[in-house]
Amino acid sequence: MSSFASLPPPGCIKTVEEICNERVPKTAKVIGRLIERDIKLEKGVLSSRDKRHSLTINTRLIEPFQAKINCLYQVIGEVDVSRDQQEVIMTVRTAVCVEGTDLIAYEKALQFQREYLYTR
């Protein structure tokens, strides 16, 4: 008999903006455009569709991460908030390039899914 107790929880689908505004530690799945990458520090920055919000990602668990700047990535990982609530960092467990995804349609589908799940 196998046990799933050691598996991390599934990621709750969020936007970059929601993660930055909520500042709550949790497992999340998010899509954002990679706008910065520092290989030595094993970090990167994802931006929201409107470029008003950015999320720092820690890529140490997925190195070597062959990332392309200005491409869309869907990442799943753990969101951590600094003790002073000033910085939000996501430690990424998995990352997939999803360049070509229509973010407006994606966000509409996410909203419809949330409305449906809320009414259940």
Quick overview of this protein structure:
The chain has 120 residues and is α/β, with parallel strands linked by helices.
Description:
The chain is an alpha/beta fold and 120 residues long. It is built from two helices and six strands. It has helices spanning 16-22, 103-119, and strands spanning 12-13, 26-38, 43-47, 54-58, 72-81, 88-97. Strands 2-3-4-6-5 form a five-stranded mixed beta barrel. Strand 2 (26-38) and strand 3 form a beta hairpin. The model has no long low-confidence stretch (mean pLDDT 88).
End-to-end CA span? 32 Å
Strand content: 35-45%
Ranges with pLDDT <50 over ≥5 residues? none
Class derived from helix and strand content: alpha/beta
Shape: globular
- The order of strands across the largest sheet is 2-3-4-6-5
Mind sketching the topology for me?
Layout: E1 12-13, H1 16-22, E2 26-38, E3 43-47, E4 54-58, E5 72-81, E6 88-97, H2 103-119
Can you tag this structure with a few keywords?
38% strand; 20% helix; alpha/beta; 120 residues; 2 helices; five-stranded mixed beta barrel
